[in-house]
Amino acid sequence: MDALACREARTRADFLRTELLANPASARLYTLLESYTEHWPRLGGPPAGTGLPDLIREVQQWQPQARWVVVAHLLHDFVAGLTEEGRKEFLTTLAKAVTVHGDEKTAQALIRAAEGQGQSLTA
Description:
With 123 residues, this protein is mainly α.
């Protein structure tokens, strides 16, 4: 990569981290808009035909105060404070609860995450 390309990549990464990843709604909006076309007009908004009410409804579900976002943050912080063994135990317990509620596929994914294949559960 030349110096300009490196600088552009660094600027984009900084933008993604500080602006988008700080707010789940912004991140979701960005991914929705990016998925419509490879290069949608930067200042013109989404492509023609984009259902604005649907887009707004989707983004509202990702607002920082949305219940699932609050719960996700609480769980993330809780799990991050556990030891590696505690994380495995927590995910195994969670997998059992998910199984009781009838979602075997998600339960198996949680078991695989608990096994970790040598990766940290908070990575």
